[in-house]
Every structure is written in C-alpha cells, then in structure tokens.
Write a structure and sequence with these properties.
Radius of gyration: 14 Å
Order of helices and strands: HH
Oligomer: single chain
Strand content: under 5%
Helix content: over 70%
Shape: flat
Number of domains: 1
Distance between the termini: 34 Å
C-alpha cells in the first residue's frame, strides 16, 4: 500500500510540474475535460 501511495505522489508532482511549465495550456485542457465530462452527466 505504501509503494502505491508513493507512486501516486510522484505522478502528482510530475503533473504539477508540467502544469506549471505551461499554465495556459493546462487550464485549457482542464476546461475542455470539464466541458466534455459535463455532457456525460445524467
């Protein structure tokens, strides 16, 4: 269980670094994902 949490923490850090490197693109991607998923709600 601990190794899985460590792996998830590393992935979170990598995603945060990528998001900070290109903030505008990250925000656009999140907005696009939100809009796409909001259409799937029942």
């Amino acid at each position: 269980m601990t190794s899985r949490l460590a792996q998830l923490a590393i992935i979170d850090v990598l995603i945060a670094c990528l998001s900070l490197a290109d903030y505008e693109r990250a925000v656009k991607t999140i907005r696009d994902a939100f809009e796409t998923l909001s259409l799937k709600r029942y």
